[in-house]
Amino acid sequence: DYGKELVDRLVGEGGGRGGSFETGFNYPVRLLQGFGMSACAVFVLLVALQSLTNRVVFGLERLRAEVVRYREALGNYQTSVSSSSSMAAYPTAPYSNRYDIVALSYTVMESIYGDGPAFFEQLLSSMLTGTSAGQLAIIASFLWAWLQIFRSYRRMMMQLRADHTLIRVWHFPIHDASGYVGRQLWSSLVSAMLVFIPVFFLVSFLLWQPTQRFFVFFVFLPLGGLALIELGCWGLRAWVNSIAVSGIYIRSRRIYGVYDFIGLYLHFLTGPALAVLRVLFTYADFAINFCRLDIPVLEGSLANFDPGHAAFMAMLYLDFFYNAPVTSVMAYNLSNALYRRRELKQISEADQSTEGKAARERKKIAIVQRNRWQFLFTATNNPSLLSSRVLPPPPLYAWDREGGFQDD
Fold it and tell me: What is the pTM for the complete model shown?
């Protein structure tokens, strides 16, 4: 109960009963199925990423072991590329000129390990930590995106119930709803990979000592300096706004003019930081919300050309047409009436007494008479239908004809 109440507060208002997240509103099974299938696919992806990282770490450790054994064979514990004068006297290297990729891998491995085993151990540790950070980022982004999907679905459904003119079935036909689950699953997988890749490399590079220097001197210091300039500009804007501007009115034109003149050239310096920041925000928004099929990739009149969004809207329309409150109440009452009629029919057929048989005969006669009156009413109000009337075939035997037996 507490868990359901928490979900109710996250995805809607009020408390839900009978499997609904909110009173008077139920999420369709197709949407919940998309969530479940996407969650399973993301879980499989997390396991695959962890297995791949463990395989890479194992391969690097095996590569290091071969390099160490080769150094021991050399006798001086130096790298194979350190001395070219007496290379012919050294043992055969664990690679040849025919395998350039293997040779390059060993050379890079030797150059790294030649500075000491700490760099290699730190590389493996940074890769494992980067994988864990990427997996946590995938889980957080997946839950956040689906929280927004549930909220968006409810909001769009309430808007349709309030205004039927928002329906555009000719843009989003309801038969596209059949492809929602598959499209949602693959969108979630792609979104997870878009989140994992930058987080993995960023964390790995920040934790590995050789790349730490690069990030500090060539990334963080320049962007930090530009960020400080932007922070100073923000303080200057706040000060000017407090003494020269009141809402939409300019109280001191002289101070505002000086600030406008200085800011024209000052913001040329903050442009690179702003551009990088916009790129980071754009990528983060795209990676996290890529699995949100409620948001079209193409805006405006081109939204129907996005297959994922078209499937989401088709599912929304299908749910609205067949699961709306009025339709649900009518179907519920109709089904109850049919079930009640079926029960009465079974009770009547089970009654083998004289009164029961007579009641069944009277019911058959009443059905025939009611059908005749319905036909008379329809034919009277629609005379043109009489020409299309199909008469029953004549009886096979003469005594069944009207007027009794007639001898040919």
Answer: 0.66
